[in-house]
Amino acid sequence: MKVLIAGNFDVIHPGHIYFLTEASKLGEVTVVVARDETIKKFKGRAPIFNENERKLILENLKMIKKVILGDQKDFFTPVLLEKPDIIFLGPDQYSSWIEERINKSGLGTKIMRLNNRLPYSSSELKRRFLKVYPIDSTKET
Amino acid sequence: MKVLIAGNFDVIHPGHIYFLTEASKLGEVTVVVARDETIKKFKGRAPIFNENERKLILENLKMIKKVILGDQKDFFTPVLLEKPDIIFLGPDQYSSWIEERINKSGLGTKIMRLNNRLPYSSSELKRRFLKVYPIDSTKET
């Protein structure tokens, strides 16, 4: 089974490890890494690690078979290229537009979802960064 | 060949990937992860990820065979337990006390060092965090 997942994967945390492990139980995992420009557009800021750095780190994780960069123009392009059996979504990832595109494409890809909330989130990470690097630490840089 | 390396490994970055890849070219890599209390003592602050989280992430990296937590009382204990052929040090890691202890122990472990400066450092990481989470972002948490 070919499993496709997608995400920012900016600073690998235990929530990612859990999500990737669950994905790998379904089959061989291909990860689509969000482009820097896409993250800037959606978050209003650059990622901490750029797309090539995020790709490099993911390529070195045991449960991942293949890592590709996303398509800036059409998010569905990697699905058309990879033709996965399963798209595995995280608890907060939106699916209705993907379902529509799969139906149109005739690919037969199944959408599955990790329903458990991840034991870790980006906002938890941010809370920890700010605890470790408090306001006055900017003076040192 | 059994290769031992040690470090904090708090937030995996491309410098770690490079260091771990170089270590794995020498043999099977065992990583000693610094304890939270040790980091607090040396850095004056807690790590972003606790010791079990750092261990979990490392255990999922392809180039690592085994991950153990450090010893809070005597940093040399993991060397005595693991009996590595090589201890592989990063460019900033201190070695003279390790050499002394190896000589005393009669282990015959060889010390090797990555001489290239890592293409990434903790201070670079800090600079990026502060850029991404600027001062006024503390209001949101």
TrEMBL record, chains A, B:
Residues 5-128 form the Cytidyltransferase-like domain. It comes from the Archaea. GO terms for molecular function: ATP binding; FMN adenylyltransferase activity. The keyword Ribonucleoprotein does not apply. InterPro entries: Archaeal_FAD_synthase, Cyt_trans-like, Rossmann-like_a/b/a_fold. Keywords: ATP-binding, Nucleotide-binding, Nucleotidyltransferase, Transferase. Its EC number is 2.7.7.2. This is FAD synthase. Signal peptide: none annotated. It is an enzyme of class 2 (transferase). NCBIfam families: cyt_tran_rel (TIGR00125). The keyword Nucleotidyltransferase applies. Pfam families: CTP_transf_like.
